[in-house]
Design goal:
Blueprint lengths: L6 H14 L13 H14 L6 E2 L2 E2 L7 H11 L4 H27 L7 H10 L2 H7 L6 H21 L2 H17 L3 H17 L8 H11 L1 H8 L9 H9 L6 H18 L3 H11 L8 H19 L12 H12 L4 H31 L6 H11 L6 E4 L3 H13 L7 E2 L7 E5 L8 E8 L2 E8 L3
Parallel strand pairs: 3-4, 3-5
Antiparallel strand pairs: 1-2, 5-7, 6-7
Helix pairs in contact: 1-5, 1-17, 2-3, 2-19, 3-4, 4-5, 4-7, 4-16, 5-16, 7-8, 7-9, 8-9, 8-10, 9-15, 15-16, 18-19
Length: about 475
C-alpha cells in the first residue's frame, strides 16, 4: 500500500467490505433463531396477514415490520430461498446503517478529514460484531439497530440545529424501530435524548409545542398499535417486560459481579479491531487521547444506553447492536487524533478484518455450524419429509431452535401442504415432532441427536 492513502482507498474498501457482507447468505443453514424468523414470515404469507406474526400457528404480539421485506423478497426469489431472504434484509439494514454513519460523521466531525464519511463507514463495517455476525445474520438486530441509531443521530441534529424537520425524521425512525422489534427502542431513544439535551443545553425545547407535541404523538404509537392492531388479550409489552425481568431475576451475586466486570470488556472485544488497537497504544505505547465536545457527548450517550444492560446479570451483547454506529463515530474521532503512521496502522487492521471475512464466511463459519453430521438440520428435515410423505398431517411439540428450523425448512419445501403447526389434539392421527421423549404421543418413528438437542418423530393416533 502507498505511503499516503488517497480518498479512493477509503471508498473502495467500504464498497468491497459492504459486498463481502453477502458471503455467508447462501452457505449457512439456519443459525439459532433464524428458523423462527423464517417461519414467522412464511406463516404471515400463507395467512395473507401482514400485521400479526405467528409461530407454529399461534399469533404472537410481535412487531411485523421486519417480515415485510422478507415477504417481498421471497415473492421475487421464491419461498424456498427464505433463508437467503432473511439474511439479505439484515445486510441491507447494515448498508443503510453504513450510510447513516458516514453521513453523521460528515456533520458531527466536520473538517477533521476530507473523507471522514468514508472512513467512519469503514470503521463500522470492520467492527467484529457487524462484520462477522449481526451485520448479516437473519435476526431483527441489524434492522432494529439501523432504525434506532438513525433515530438517535437525527435527534442529535434536530437538537443541535433546533430544527423540527430533523425531529420529525427522528421520530419516524424510532417508530420504525418499534415496529421492527419492541418498546426497547423508546427506552434507548429517551436515554440518548436526555443526555443530548443536557450536553447541548436544549431544555428550553421542552416548552416548545412544535417539539413536544410530535414527541408525544410518536410515543403514543405503541398504545395505538396495542389498541387497534394487537389481538384482544395479548400485549406488545409482555415479552419485552418478561425478557427484561429474566435478565435480573434468578442470578446470584457472583453472576452479577462477573457480568459487571466482563460486560465492558466483551463490548470492546466485539467492537474490535480499533478498540484493541487503541487499548494497545494506550497501555504499551503510552499514547494519550483527548476528548472534545462531540466525542464526550458520544461517549456519554453510549455509556448511558449501555448502563441498563450492564446493570443486569443476563444482558446479552446482542442488545448493544444499536450502539455500534455511535461507537464507530467515537472510534473514528479517536483515530483521527493519531499521526499519519498510526492511522495507516489502524487502516491496515481494518483491512485485515475485511480480508479475513472471506475465509471466515466460506470455510470457518460453515464448518463450525454445519460441518459435522449431527449439525445437519437440512438432512433431518429431508428425512422427516420422507417419513411423513403420506396424507397424514405433521404437527410439532418442539419449539427450540432445532425443532423450529426443521419445521421452517419443511414449510417452504412442500408449499402444497399447510405449514407445520402446534399439536393441539393428541387424539388425532398425525406425525408429531417432539422436543423431549413423549411415549404418550404414540409410536416412536425415529430419534435424532441434533446440535446438542434431541428430536423425536412420533406417529400419533395409530389404531
Amino acid at each position: 500500500m502507498k505511503a499516503r492513502l488517497t480518498p479512493e482507498h477509503y471508498k473502495w474498501l467500504v464498497l468491497v467490505a459492504g459486498l463481502l457482507m453477502l458471503l455467508p447468505l447462501p452457505l449457512m443453514q439456519y443459525v439459532g433463531e433464524e428458523g423462527l424468523m423464517a417461519m414467522k414470515s412464511y406463516e404471515m404469507h400463507v395467512r395473507g396477514d401482514w400485521l400479526h406474526p405467528s409461530i407454529l400457528g399461534f399469533v404472537w404480539p410481535h412487531s411485523p415490520l421486519w417480515h415485510w421485506p422478507v415477504m417481498l423478497i421471497c415473492g421475487l426469489i421464491g419461498w424456498e430461498h427464505v433463508d437467503i431472504a432473511i439474511r439479505l434484509v439484515s445486510v441491507m439494514a447494515t448498508w443503510l446503517t453504513v450510510g447513516m454513519v458516514g453521513w453523521s460523521a460528515t456533520w458531527l466531525m466536520q473538517g477533521r478529514h476530507t473523507q471522514i464519511g468514508w472512513l467512519a463507514a469503514l470503521v463500522y463495517l470492520s467492527m467484529g460484531e457487524i462484520c462477522f455476525w449481526y451485520g448479516w445474520l437473519g435476526y431483527l438486530d441489524a434492522t432494529f439497530g439501523c432504525f434506532t441509531f438513525s433515530a438517535i443521530v437525527t435527534l442529535w441534529r434536530a437538537l443541535r440545529d433546533e430544527h423540527v424537520g430533523w425531529l420529525l425524521l427522528s421520530l419516524l425512525f424510532i417508530s420504525l424501530a418499534f415496529m421492527t422489534k419492541n418498546i426497547t427502542a423508546y427506552a434507548l431513544f429517551g436515554i440518548a435524548g436526555l443526555v443530548l439535551m443536557w450536553r447541548l443545553d436544549r431544555w428550553k425545547l421542552l416548552l416548545n409545542p412544535l417539539f413536544v407535541l410530535p414527541v408525544l404523538a410518536a410515543f403514543s404509537v405503541p398504545l395505538l398499535w396495542q389498541e387497534f392492531v394487537v389481538l384482544k388479550g395479548a400485549s406488545t409489552a409482555t415479552t419485552t417486560v418478561n425478557d427484561a425481568l429474566r435478565n435480573f431475576a434468578g442470578f446470584g451475586i457472583a453472576a452479577y459481579l462477573s457480568h459487571w466486570l466482563s460486560y465492558p470488556a466483551v463490548f470492546m472485544l466485539r467492537a474490535m479491531p480499533l478498540t484493541l488497537f487503541f487499548a494497545g497504544l494506550w497501555l504499551l505505547r503510552r499514547e494519550r487521547f483527548s476528548s472534545d465536545e462531540q466525542l464526550m457527548s458520544l461517549l456519554m450517550v453510549i455509556v448511558a444506553c449501555l448502563f441498563p444492560f450492564w446493570l443486569s446479570a443476563g444482558g446479552s451483547p446482542r442488545y448493544l447492536v444499536p450502539l455500534y454506529g455511535l461507537v464507530a463515530l467515537l472510534l473514528t474521532g479517536v483515530l483521527l487524533q493519531l499521526d499519519a503512521r498510526r492511522i495507516r496502522q489502524g487502516l491496515m487492521l481494518m483491512l485485515l478484518v475485511v480480508v479475513l471475512k472471506v475465509p471466515y464466511s466460506l470455510f470457518v463459519l460453515p464448518y463450525i455450524k454445519d460441518g459435522m453430521p449431527e449439525r445437519d438440520v437440512k438432512q433431518v428435515a429431508r428425512e422427516v419429509m420422507q417419513m411423513t410423505s403420506d396424507d397424514v398431517p405433521l404437527y410439532s411439540e418442539n419449539d427450540v431452535s432445532t425443532g423450529l428450523a426443521i419445521a421452517a425448512y419443511i414449510d417452504v419445501w412442500r408449499q402444497d401442504r399447510p405449514p407445520v403447526t402446534w399439536n393441539l389434539d393428541r387424539k388425532l392421527r398425525a406425525y408429531v415432532l417432539a422436543e423431549v421423549e413423549t411415549p404418550a404421543l404414540g409410536r416412536l418413528v425415529k430419534t435424532w441427536r441434533l446440535r446438542g438437542d434431541h428430536v423425536y418423530l412420533y406417529s400419533q393416533g395409530e389404531e
